[in-house]
Amino acid sequence: xxxxxxxxxxxxxxxxxxxxxxxLTVDEGEVFGFLGPNGAGKxxxxxxxxxxxxxxxxxxxxxxxxxxxxxxxxxRDRVGVLPEGFGVYGRLSGRKxxxxxxxxxxxxxxPDELLERVGLTGDGGRPAGDYSRGMxxxxxxxxxxxxxxxxxxLDEPSTGLDPNGxxxxxxxxxxEAARGATVFFSSHILGQVEAVCDRVGIIRDGExxxxxxxxxxxxxxxxxxVLEIAVGGDPSAAALDAVRELGxxxxxxxxxxxxxxxxxxxxxxxxxLDALESAGVEVADFETRETSxxxxxxxxxxxxxxxxxxxxxxxxxxxxxx
Length: 322
Ligand SMILES: Nc1ncnc2c1ncn2[C@@H]1O[C@H](COP(=O)(O)OP(=O)(O)OP(=O)(O)O)[C@@H](O)[C@H]1O
Hints:
Number of helices: 12
Number of strands: 14
Largest sheet: 6 strands, mixed
Bound molecules: adenosine-5'-triphosphate
Structural class: alpha/beta
CATH superfamily of the largest domain: P-loop containing nucleotide triphosphate hydrolases
Strand content: 25-35%
CATH class of the largest domain: Alpha Beta
Shape: elongated
Order of helices and strands: EEEHEEHEHHHEHEHEEHEHEEHEHH
Strand order of the largest sheet: 6-7-8-3-9-10
């Protein structure tokens, strides 16, 4: 059974098409990363699938059942959510938040164990209003785990977390997946999702432009990694052509004493360096960059990321400006 089914979902806000005929199926037990630049439509899609926002068109099914406002309570009990603009009750302690969540879901979890899972041991008695943003995020993640939900929907769960917190979050995702939960989470950072995701969907301008494993996306995009090479002086056109002619090189760019080579398939980095040196170019230094989300966007769309499709040019970062 599919845990999440979006079928032809569209949503407009005035001149902005937030979701454009979006279809997506996430299978039960899957860890699915939902990636896209600011304003791509990630939160809108999540809000639609949680029935916080009514789509203009399309169907949504969660855990096999259609989402309907008046009937969604039983489904909600099986879903744990870390929403985009979460808030905490400032004067209530972290532990109290969890006690309420446990009571309201008639679960039998120990709030202190939940605090420990998200790295808040020792802070449970403090008012949540005194927590840092990252600590509040951890608390809301712990609340999402209450009742061992069948489906976890996490909107940008790593944002605001320190590296330790981001690691804990990934561990929690793995633990939840190991007990059979489906996890759906959004991010705009590929590195944060690739460690835990079975599959990734890339959304841009409200449209799903690719769905695959991260390895599959890299392979299909032909942009497995990018080699940044510092060279002594301007490289000759012949040297750059020698690199271009290597199998598996998808792009070669030079700017001053910097050469950027995008590698697809299985070309060896040393082959690139050798080709430059054989053409008389002095290689001073080099480093490899992992394919970034932007590289993947470029590979998939042949252009930059994050353009808006609105009639205005004022909402490049519309997702953040509300
Ligand atoms: N309530 C709203 N009113 C007006 N426009 C909205 C509203 N919600 C979303 N939008 C617009 O829809 C588009 C998609 O926004 P959304 O928040 O879904 O993007 P996102 O991918 O979650 O972005 P981010 O990574 O910045 O959180 C944006 O252009 C945004 O301005």
